[in-house]
Amino acid sequence: MPEKQYGKLTADQFRRLIRKLPEFRSESKAFHEELRAASPEKLREVLGDGIWWAPLYEMPFAEVVALMVCAIGQADYLKEAVQSPDPQEIVLAEWEKLADSADMEHVPKDVTKADLIAIASALQRNVLSIMLYKRSLCSLVAEAKEGNDSALFEAVRVDQSAVTCPTLAVRITRAVLLGEKQFFIRLRSALKGPSRKHWEGYQDLRYSLAILREMGFDQLSDAELEHLLVDVLKVYPKTYTARKNLRKQYTESKKIKGL
Known about the structure:
Layout: H1 11-37, H2 40-47, H3 61-71, H4 75-83, H5 87-99, H6 113-133, H7 137-145, H8 149-158, H9 166-178, H10 181-190, H11 196-199, H12 203-214, H13 222-232, H14 242-254
Helix pairs in contact: 3-6, 4-5, 6-12, 7-8, 8-10, 12-14, 13-14
């Protein structure tokens, strides 16, 4: 088995994982454009009486991923990954294979198109949250449940429909009851979505740092950080301040509990 230079990932696996990000963004954009351009009849056919994915944010992010895998009828490969000496390679290879195929013949009969759209939407927004805040939307909701209003507002910035998530709905209801004006000023701002600062920031860098943290590799020197993020993954420009800036981002990322 190849040497795992970065926790549970080899350098090649890390590169392959990061290379998926532009593809993910373009597919997400195309998906929403196609849905918004659909006729009312087509929308009724696909969505039925409507969909609601916000409750999925109450689950750990890993469970949302597993739910998607099962929904497209690929649960067997998860069993193979668990039994493999290199489960990360099995997961990456399967992801690449699915991305190159439109074959959905393995989808269970009791899984509807609306179900797939709901799970995919929750998954897309979780990944976007990692790009913006170095942690998933599921993680933000978990923090909000512990009383962290800032996490609540970040969750809403990523996905406005998160206000219908039970945890967030309970907190908003409490704010209504207590007349918390400042809370609603911040909520109104959050409903506008991510700021330009976040959209134009280093989304791929944040994602890379989150993956590095989750893969159990949290001890890198300044030189190693620069080599990985600038030379290997190419998610940060080669500048004379790179080491200092990357160290700051890396230190902040390590403080986050997890995805």
